[in-house]
Amino acid sequence: MIRFVDVHKRFGDRVVLDGFSLDIPDGQTTVLLGASGAGKSVTLKHVVGLITPDAGYVEVDGHRVDTLEPAGLAALRRTIGYVFQFAALFDSMTIADNLRLGLVRQSLGEDEIAHRVQEALAHVGLSDAAERFPAELSGGMRKRAGIARAIALRPRYILWDEPTTGLDPVTAATMDRLMRRTAEELGVTSVVVTHDMRSAFTVGDRIAMLHHGTLRTVGTVAEIQATTDPVVRQFIEGLPE
Amino acid sequence: MTATSEPRAANSAEVRIADRGSPISVIGSTTRRIMRALGERDVWVPLLLPQMRKLGVDSIPIALFIATFTGIVLALLASYIFTGTVPVYFVGALVGKTIMMELGPVLTGMALAGRVGASIAAELGTMKVTEQVDALETLAYNPDSYLVVPRVLAATLMFPVITAFAIALGVIAGWITAINLLDLTTLEFTKGLRAFYEFKDVWFGLVKAASFGGAVALMGCLRGLRAGGGAEGVGRETTRAVVLGCEAILLLDAFWAVVLL
């Protein structure tokens, strides 16, 4: 289980998180909604210790992330797959080597690494792209390669940072289906950060909304769709300020 | 998993932002990070040889180009200064001594500050702004072990090698210039070269070169990992890495002169 407990974070004068609290239950996909610049990605980065809170804390499986020693943090990160907004593939490596890099760190044998690479690439439909470089792939393929890199680790959690941003509607729908299938087949706990409402309603079991640095609302998809909260309604319906 | 009671502030992109403190605190935190990263030998050892080839072997042509023309100019300059006042075989002494102790290491270092320092800063800066460094961390790698240590060690080991080639070619270029353009014989040139030669001249130059290599690569890594704000930020940090690399070379040059001479 992932818990955000009264997390505060500011960058200079800009307050990004101002007492954000949220529990992410195991085995479900929780979507974190919020306007651009609301601090969704910052929230996600707290989970893997890329950012430490100014106050409050984040717990993963009962461990406070910000107090872990480097070895403990590395062990925690091996249980979490992170899908970056623009894939963040290592552009000097082939797609297969991108996947291999994380697996090498898990001290797996060569056969097991090769098997996992093939399995993960097959899962995202990129078996033919193993020896290609990221620059040779389309945006959608790069995102799928980023997903393959995350699931090859066989993580307990997958954190998705804006998985459908910048994709055409058809590719975005394919990405939604892939996220849903990944959650169901692998039984992982997912946190999806997005401002794409269609995607949120498709992949989410629960939806939370981040607004002005705090949790505005959280509930099931049906509850969010039926909410009367004007801020949430405005966001869902895409109404101007 | 082990935990401390205090919030951790290490090994993340955030720490590098926090490093924007006083020079002393930056040196302290950087040293701590590098020392910890050195312990992860399974990460950086396999990357060392490729980096030595990339930063070292690929830099040899530019270093040799500079050394050749430095040797030629030094021989001509020495002849211009010494003619009529000092025996001309001193041309060999000046060329040898100057190239071995000063111009070989410093000019090579400066050239490589441009080539190696800029290349490291641009590469790591691009990785930083495209979240590749964050991705590395989420895959349980310490960026200092994976990115910084192999580059700094490779440059520390390869700069002396490149400098040794540069010194040799610089002296040869000076000799060829002397016998072809200055009416000196090989015997006279080598007489001057040997008259003031000490083994210390060579290792003094190579020790300096090693320290220049470490400093240039470290500046490249630190500035690159601070990059933010897209291409403009990468460009800014790359320029800064080259400037700081050159400044570090001059500071170290003075330091070694005070300590070793």
Could you characterize what this model shows?
The complex is a heterodimer of chains A (241) and B (261). Chain A has helices spanning 40-47, 70-77, 95-104, 110-123, 139-151, 169-186, 197-203, 221-225, 230-237; strands spanning 2-11, 14-24, 29-33, 55-60, 63-64, 80-83, 157-161, 189-194, 206-211, 214-220. In chain A, 38% of the residues lie in helices and 26% in strands. Chain A is built from 9 helices and 10 strands. In chain A, helix 3 (95-104) packs parallel to helix 5 (139-151) and helix 4 packs across helix 5 (139-151). Chain A is an alpha/beta fold. The two termini of chain A are 35 Å apart. Chain B is built from 10 helices and no strands. In chain B, helix 4 (60-82) runs parallel beside helix 7 (143-181), helix 5 (90-129) crosses helix 8 and helix 9 packs antiparallel against helix 10 (230-260). Chains A and B meet through strand 5, helix 2 and strand 6 of A and helix 6 of B.
Map the helices and strands.
The complex is a heterodimer of chains A (241) and B (261).
Chain A: E1 2-11, E2 14-24, E3 29-33, H1 40-47, E4 55-60, E5 63-64, H2 70-77, E6 80-83, H3 95-104, H4 110-123, H5 139-151, E7 157-161, H6 169-186, E8 189-194, H7 197-203, E9 206-211, E10 214-220, H8 221-225, H9 230-237
Parallel strand pairs in A: 3-8, 3-9, 6-7, 7-8
Antiparallel strand pairs in A: 1-2, 1-4, 4-5, 9-10
Helix pairs in contact in A: 3-4, 3-5, 4-5
Chain B: H1 13-18, H2 23-38, H3 41-56, H4 60-82, H5 90-129, H6 132-138, H7 143-181, H8 186-195, H9 199-224, H10 230-260
Helix pairs in contact in B: 2-7, 3-7, 4-5, 4-7, 5-7, 5-8, 5-9, 5-10, 7-9, 9-10
How is this structure best summarized?
The complex is a heterodimer of chains A (241) and B (261). Chain A is an alpha/beta fold and 241 residues long.
Feature tags:
heterodimer; A: 241 residues; alpha/beta; six-stranded mixed β-sheet; four-stranded antiparallel β-sheet; 9 helices; B: 261 residues; mainly alpha; 0% strand
